[in-house]
Amino acid sequence: MLTVAGLGVTYGGLRALDDVSLEIAAGEFVTLVGPNGAGKTTLLKAISGTVVAAEGRVVYKGRDVGRLSASERAALGIAHVPEGRRVFPTLSVGDNLQLGGYRRAARAQRANALATVLELFPVLRQRTHQLAGSLSGGEQQMLALGRGLMAQPELLLLDEPSQGLGPRIVEQIFETIERIRRERRLTILLVEQRVVEALELCDRGYVLETGRVVLVGGRDALLADTRVQRAYLGG
Description:
By secondary structure, this protein is of the alpha/beta class.
């Protein structure tokens, strides 16, 4: 479904990504891990089109989307749930969710999508008329995920969904992500600092360091890899 080939991104003369390549098959769950500043968020932005790559290709469903805007890529079925949640704080929960369903392919199914999101996150049903900015951090993360799902994407990019949340809420978020994957067979690319939880969820993983892919493997292989254990698991 997604092929990234030789991707390079430069910010103000600094190299954020250097010759990064990865592939994700339809229905696959792939996790991207690495230290802060490794370029993980930049890679998601380059895929969704919110930053421009200096070189390389992003191919989605056989189409090179490198020249397309972020909105055009979203219209093709790529949904990006950014770090920091980024809800619209002065709009209600319901309005935030409705904005997620603007994609032409999703409009006809907006009511069904909303019912699904509210079933996944019952607290949002209770908060429908509440301003999004008044929600707790965990509730805002649920709203951000729900808004992404309202677009009925085929590829879901998740950037640090556990950021700033307590352990109980993190567990709930991860359980919901796994449920979304299991029930909808969405293709998911997850960036996450909680390496153990992230790798346990995925089919395969990539390790990114200083803008380069340094390790690729299946879930079990990466969890057992001494380099991963030493760097990220305290082994």
